[in-house]
Amino acid sequence: MTAAPFTSTDFRHALSQFATGVTVVTVERAPGQAYGMTANSLTSVSLEPLLVLICVDQRSHLLPLIKQKRVFAINVLKENQQAFSVYFAQADQTPEAEAKLGIQYRWTQARVPVLSDTIAQILCRVVASYIAGDHTIFLGEVQSAELSPGEPLLFFRSHYRQLAPPR
Ligand SMILES: Cc1cc2nc3c(=O)[nH]c(=O)nc-3n(C[C@H](O)[C@H](O)[C@H](O)COP(=O)(O)O)c2cc1C
User: Fold this and answer.
1) Which of 36, 122, 123 is nearest to 85 (CA)?
2) Residue nearest to ligand 1 atom 7, measured at CA
3) How remote is the CA of residue 73 from the centroid of ligand 1, in Å?
4) If you take atom 22 of ligand 1, which residue's CA is the nearest one?
């Protein structure tokens, strides 16, 4: 008897056992207009130089924007920002919808939109990209980061969670 092949569904199920935080990657899409994508593929890569990576779906609207702008922000969501995660996981993004959700941006000198009131706002410059199957890996050199107090939103087994108090 041969073992059943390991499928993409099996892969997703296995990887969903790995709990992560939730970020929104933001970039300028037109002068003064932001575009964001929910991402939990953030990985710390190197201290010298200061590198992180994110993996972006080839079909995502974010991909051509990052390729073009070469600068982006990684915004780490707070536990009460699940609605932000759901919103930025779809492409229909309008100032009206954002006003309803209370989404606000601060703009950096390099014209990167940063999500206000998130627990970390990490500014990156693209230094390399690699096509990896149906995603592109962007290696970002971290330029600066701003931190705010608060607890993180978590993602585990395809559901949002919150940190339990320390034992
Ligand atoms: C918790 C969570 C994490 C996600 N992480 C990633 C990710 O790391 N990379 C990615 O390409 N898409 C990720 N997605 C999916 C994207 O947010 C988005 O739905 C998809 O790429 C479609 O992008 P578009 O709306 O810009 O076309 C994630 C979605 C959720 C809800």
Assistant:
1) 36
2) 39
3) 15
4) 60
Q: Is 56 in the pocket of ligand 1 (CB under 6 A)?
A: yes
14, containing H or E segment: helix 8-15
- The whole-model pTM stands at 0.97
Residue-wise pLDDT tens for the chain (167 aa)?
Answer: 678 999 999 999 999 999 999 999 999 999 999 999 999 999 999 999 999 999 999 999 999 999 999 999 999 999 999 999 999 999 999 999 999 999 999 999 999 999 999 999 999 999 999 999 999 999 999 999 999 999 999 999 999 999 998 88
Give the fold, CATH level 3, of 22-156: Pnp Oxidase; Chain A (2.30.110)
In angstroms, what is the span from residue 167 Cα to ligand 1's centroid?
33
Burial of residue 26 (number of CB atoms within 10 Å: 0-12, 13-18, 19+): buried
Are the C-beta atoms of 75 and 121 separated by less than 8 Å?
A: yes
Q: Where are the beta strands (DSSP E) in the chain?
A: 20-21, 23-30, 33-39, 43-46, 51-57, 71-76, 105-107, 113-115, 120-132, 135-147, 153-156, 159-162
Ligand 1 atom nearest residue 91's Cα: 25
